[in-house]
Amino acid sequence: MKLDGIAAFVAIAEAGSISEAARRLRLAKSVVSDRLAQLERELGARLVHRSTRRLTLTEDGLIFLELASSSLRGLETAAATLSERRGTLSGPLRISAPVTLTALHLGPALYPFLRRHPQIDLTIELDDRRVDAQAEGYDGVVRHGPMRDSPLTAWRLARSRRVLVASPDYLERNGAPRNLDELEGHRGIFYTHRGIADWRFEVGEKAVQVRGRPGLRVNNGVVMCDAAKAGLGITLLPLFIAGPDIRAGALRVLDVGAEPEAEFIYVAHPEGRRPSAKLRALADCLREAFGDPPYWEAGL
User: Fold this and answer.
1) Which fold has domain 89-160+264-297?
2) Which value, in Å, is the radius of gyration of the alpha carbons in the chain?
3) Do residues 186 and 174 touch, judged by C-beta distance below 8 A?
4) What are phi and psi of 27, to 5 degrees?
5) Is the pTM of this model over 0.90?
6) How many beta carbons lie within 10 A of that of residue 97, not counting itself?
7) Residue 240 clears pLDDT 70, i.e. is over it
8) I want to staple 290 with a disulfide (CB 3.0 to 4.6 A). Which of 22, 103, 158, 231 is the partner?
């Protein structure tokens, strides 16, 4: 059996389609399909049911996948271990990261890391939705939010303080809420991946959820910030987005007598899978670049 055929089969099983596996492997779809067909001939077994609607694994495919994927991970770990012994980090590293955080802070922090380790082949997929790191073949997932229970093992990179903000114009027209009860009556700008339930505050040892009146729902933090500056309502934003506009006076921080729920920037990897030295090195690089407290909170 050829290793590239096994790798193609594992990628197809994880991606759920030959076309997506080809994209992840950066190969032509025909090449991936041919490698799967050759592997099936070598094994003398059908591994995949193909249809026009979807692709599913056969019983033989399910059995072979468990052994093949663990073997591939073992080989990758062995290769990485040899690289580490030589004092180098090399090979592919695939992570998922949020769009705005990457554009503003993650990307600039990673460029020196890649210059120091030119043999690393890094792929960053920008996506704000919740991803399944195991099923979608990510080595790590960078995210911003509360660190709640999940099937991922998370390493904290930096705290991420969020604040309620509004424009001076909005506050002049509508007044500033002084407590959580008054906040409920205000027009809100909400992040669609979290919805209006995102306004969560810590009162003593309890978490209190506030539901404002929806004025705008959008799935991008920069647009939320711009909408708040335009006077469309109150929004809850991390300082890594709102900080410059707060310093410039375009947004004002509101005090409602309670702190928003604690959040962090973290990198997570599938539980039970040994994280690579590359992922550990990347996490260390980001932790050092962000600082504690993070540099974007300076002066606020």
Assistant:
1) D-Maltodextrin-Binding Protein; domain 2 (3.40.190)
2) 23
3) yes
4) -130, 165
5) no
6) 24
7) yes
8) 158
